[in-house]
Design a protein that fits this description.
Blueprint (H helix, E strand, L loop, with lengths): L22 E10 L9 E7 L12 E4 L5 H11 L6 E3 L5 E3 H8 L7 H9 L5 H11 L1 H9 L3 H7 L8 H5 L8 E4 L10 E7 L2 E4 L2 E4 L1 H9 L5 E8 L14 E4 L6 H13 L5 E7 L2 H4 L3 H9 L5 E6 L9 H7 L1 H9 L3 E6 L4 H17 L3 H15 L3 E5 L1
Parallel strand pairs: 11-12, 11-14, 12-13, 14-15
Antiparallel strand pairs: 1-2, 1-10, 2-7, 3-6, 3-10, 4-5, 8-9
Helix pairs in contact: 1-6, 3-4, 12-14, 13-14, 14-15
The chain binds flavin-adenine dinucleotide and NADP nicotinamide-adenine-dinucleotide phosphate.
Length: about 400
Amino acid sequence: MEATTVSLEPKPAASAYSRKNPFLAELVRHDRLTGQDSPKDTRHFVLNLTGSGLTYTPGDALGVFGRHSPELVEDVLGLLGFNGGTEVNDPKGQPTTLRQALLREYTVNRANRKMMTALAERLPQNEQRNRLLELIANSDALNEYIDSRDYVDILREFNEARFESPVAFLAQLSPVVPRLYSIASSIQAHPGEAHLCITVVRYQTHGRAKKGLASGFFADHSDLFVKNIPVYIQESRSFRLPKDGSRDIIMCGPGVGLAPFRAFLEQRVLDGATGRNWLFFGEQRQATDFLYGDELLAYQRQGKLHRLDLAFSRDQAHKIYVQHRMLEQAGELWSWLQNGAYFYVCGDARHMAKDVHQALIEIAQKQGGLSPEAAADYVNVTLMKTEKRYLRDVY
Ligand SMILES: Cc1cc2nc3c(=O)[nH]c(=O)nc-3n(C[C@H](O)[C@H](O)[C@H](O)COP(=O)(O)OP(=O)(O)OC[C@H]3O[C@@H](n4cnc5c(N)ncnc54)[C@H](O)[C@@H]3O)c2cc1C
Ligand SMILES: NC(=O)c1ccc[n+]([C@@H]2O[C@H](COP(=O)([O-])OP(=O)(O)OC[C@H]3O[C@@H](n4cnc5c(N)ncnc54)[C@H](OP(=O)(O)O)[C@@H]3O)[C@@H](O)[C@H]2O)c1
């Protein structure tokens, strides 16, 4: 009989810290993973959780409350004509300043519909008001309008609106919600730490550079060695390594979808899992975007990563994606699945995960000699529901 190893079960929450009462973690490492010439900006962050009692299992995510950029908040304050030092209450009713409330508590980098109505009510009867009322009356146009604008764009455009007080403005804003990041480390490999792999959201609309609240905060505004990042652990219900370490695993994680698989690999190595590990990773270009490339190649050399299939989409004239690599390796992939392997996919839900799902069905059809219906049933029911060895963490 083959030796089996058992990976750790999720632990009951031993910590006093949670989404409602986040721990103030300290950033202790910040490295850029993508090269200078890459259009992507993907970074590695290490947070120190020492003293929190927080623990996690590979597959879990870290919930993080980000902060807006000070420039964005100062621009909004300037447009409103309010003093940032004015005392206000935060959404929990705790006293703070207007500046701090805009930095940490309310969403300023994305607009909401409620604010548009509030602005219209505060515009004099004129062309600006008519234009805004027309926009509000057309739901699709309104969605499209607010989708690409922050409050600086909007307050500049409707600059005749006047809020009577900071409280009247805050009342229209949406409270900040935390962002989740797959934890890219095993806590046993890195006691007291959580590693994150974050791609920074940056884009340009209406002539201004914009950035994501949490990813922009980590990249541009977080300080090293200061305990000030509110975090908590978001346990995964099902995205877990097999309990039986002799099972093979196939991991499909292009882009930052790689993050939980770095944790999986660390854990499998520590557990002495005897099952084989197969990773499909994809990014734009090998020279600049091979995230954790040195680590992955070292695992491969050491025989800890048994198969590594890479899909660098822009290194040739036509796109090559992870699902193309899966289809190239269809026979081998099918034999791993037939042998009881677990299949994991993490990353983009909109396109990649759907295409990977279709590729699995195609492999079941061609390699398993199944009809299209039987192949879909094998993937959707047998693998996913009955045997629970096709697990997804897609967003
Ligand atoms: C379970 C889970 C795990 C995750 N793990 C990771 C991870 O490991 N690494 C990682 O990087 N992310 C991960 N994410 C995504 C992460 O939670 C955030 O959604 C992401 O970092 C963006 O958050 P943000 O605050 O930086 O951006 P936000 O402030 O939320 O802004 C993002 C929004 O900006 C808008 N936007 C973006 N680009 C444009 C554009 N070109 N034009 C107009 N509008 C645009 C879009 O509306 C987009 O929704 C995960 C998500 C989930 C649910
Ligand atoms: N909510 C948010 O604002 C937010 C922010 C950040 C990330 N995310 C999520 O995180 C995901 C990962 O982002 P990322 O920047 O690390 O990587 P990504 O955009 O998923 O790109 C990684 C690789 O996947 C390729 N790819 C594109 N379409 C694909 C498809 N249909 N099938 C397979 N591969 C495909 C890309 O190729 P090409 O680029 O050459 O086409 C690239 O080589 C995002 O797609 C998004 O879902 C969300």
